User: What shape does this take?
Amino acid sequence: MENFIKKISNAISLMLLFILSAVFYFSAKGFVVENGQIVLKEQIAHADEIKNGIAMVVSKNININANSRYAIGAENAPLTLYEYSSFGCPHCADFHLNEIPKLQEDFVNNGLLKIVFVSFPLDKKSMKGTMLAHCMTYDNYHNFIYTLFDRQRRWFLASDDTPLFKFAAEYGLSYDEAQNCIRDDNVASEIIADRQQAIAQLKMEGTPALLISGPDGNEVIYGKPRYSDLRDYLNKRLADLNYVRQ
Assistant: This one.
């Protein structure tokens, strides 16, 4: 009986320690409990800047550096969605593989949305994947990105970069070309500049994140939204701009 009581006491102590640690962690990260939900204090302070429940308004004066040479959609689309993503991020893979095709069908094909992929590498392997993507031709760029997300575990968990170079070779980049690509300081500088702008001006700290830009301003969705919420959000912004999805 005494041993049983000790086990119960130890379990309770561990549980309390876990709860206290969780409270400390979330408090340190800026989370508080508001109306029964855990939310960021920053979001509470800027609640008047949140649009349609999922987007945060940012400055209209930001000139996005991200290169749009590989953009999907009409050049004159009323809205542009910048997809900030890291190749090693599972949530990014899920969004790109499953939600981007829906956006293409619902908005891009109607000329209402342009999508620009912007790599926001969070680790060395994702950085190498990003550099290889930048060295792809237009015809192979999007297929290579799809492959990196679709086979994410195969290259990201590998002991070396061999899978990355094999995938690059599938899309026309020889081993020597791939080696030169990942050593190209100009390519690296372009990627880092996009990442630093996202951190400094868009307050991005992780991926995925979506910047939706239009004549009515710039708004950011942090994290992976439900597609129904994203669809409703885009429909609302388009309606405000007097565009209606057919």
